[in-house]
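To close the section, here is one more complete example, presented without commentary so you can practise reading it yourself. The ligand is flavin mononucleotide.
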Amino acid sequence: MRWFLQKCALFFYVRLVKPVLFRILPDVIHEKMLTLSKFASRHALFRWFIRYSMKYDNQKVLAQKLDKFKGLKFDNPFGLGAGFDKNAVTATAIEGIGFAYAAFGSTTARFCPGNERPWFHRLPEYKSLMVNVGLANDGVDVVSKTISNAHSSSTTLKVGQSIARTNDAKAADDAEGIEDYAHSLQKLFGKTAYIEINISCPNTFKGEPFTDPARLDALLTRLDAVERSGPVTLKMPSDKTWEEFRELLEVVVKHDVQGVTISNLRKNRENLEIPEEWKGNLSGAPTKDKSDYLVAKTFLEYGDRLVITGLGGIFTPKDAYRKIKLGASLVSIVSALMFEGPAVVPYLKRGLVKLLKEDGFENVRKAVGTAATKYAQSSKEW
Ligand SMILES: Cc1cc2nc3c(=O)[nH]c(=O)nc-3n(C[C@H](O)[C@H](O)[C@H](O)COP(=O)(O)O)c2cc1C
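Output:
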């Protein structure tokens, strides 16, 4: 009965709701979706309905305790990636849909109005969204209160916060930028289950200074001195060669960082027909192959030290299973929520359980990285 309801919700969203939503400007729809999720989070009847209709019980196969991630337990491998809800106002709805964890944010030390509108352009033919938000958010002093409430009131959702450097002239200097991150980390102490450090937002006027190994080392050295209550994962850039990416990982493993989130938006527009005047960077399907590659390579060299969260172009259970077999212990989505609707979460969980069982894995943990070597032998080098 519930599966039928979830299938109907998927069908209804993709065939009826999405065509209407996609006629409206994406900037407007994003705001409306947040308002709707906030509303649903606040009203008991909606909360109950979301939980009831999106429920999927098969936690034994999907649940994991990640020792390398300070022993954090996850009900299933699916999480919401950073960017959907910068100010952490929809946690109850996100938990109700069935996500095991969520990276809210990215938030910054100070309020940030973001870039000039439009922030989004849809590319349905590529299953992608062009994003040029520029880290608009209320600032960590405000967000730390909402995130703290979300963390203390959630039962299963591991509430994470993504932090980035404020996108303004003050934090453009490296030393100020480092203090900006340190302030956010300090402010969030005890208020989240984990922290994601976003060094790879491609939409800021000062670029991504901390995707340079020496500057990353300076940043992480400073952050090592800040007390934290849970594990830390680093949100990695996607537009690096493996050699450049590995140099960053060499720095990461010397510091108090437990994981890497692979990866952020794609900058390169190769082989895609996109109007030149559209500003921003790509989410969704165009990010998938590079992210798969970086997940596999990272797993093979650093899998014994770092927990990998894989994201980029996950729309189906097969996409998620592939990232897991390439080395991701956790998998996140952002674009799929917009393209497929909330019922995509039980759809992904149910499909993943089926795939794991078909291959004889009694728990998702056992599948992690099982295809990485074979993949790396045949994959092209990036
Ligand atoms: C609307 C939107 C906003 C985003 N904002 C952020 C952000 O603030 N911080 C961040 O680390 N990543 C951000 N991202 C990148 C996503 O977290 C993710 O890395 C990327 O979209 C690939 O995943 P997907 O294919 O599931 O969308 C954003 C993505 C989208 C679609």
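Once you have examined the tokens, check your reading against these statements. The CA atoms of residues 333 and 378 lie 26 Å apart. The longest strand covers residues 101-107.
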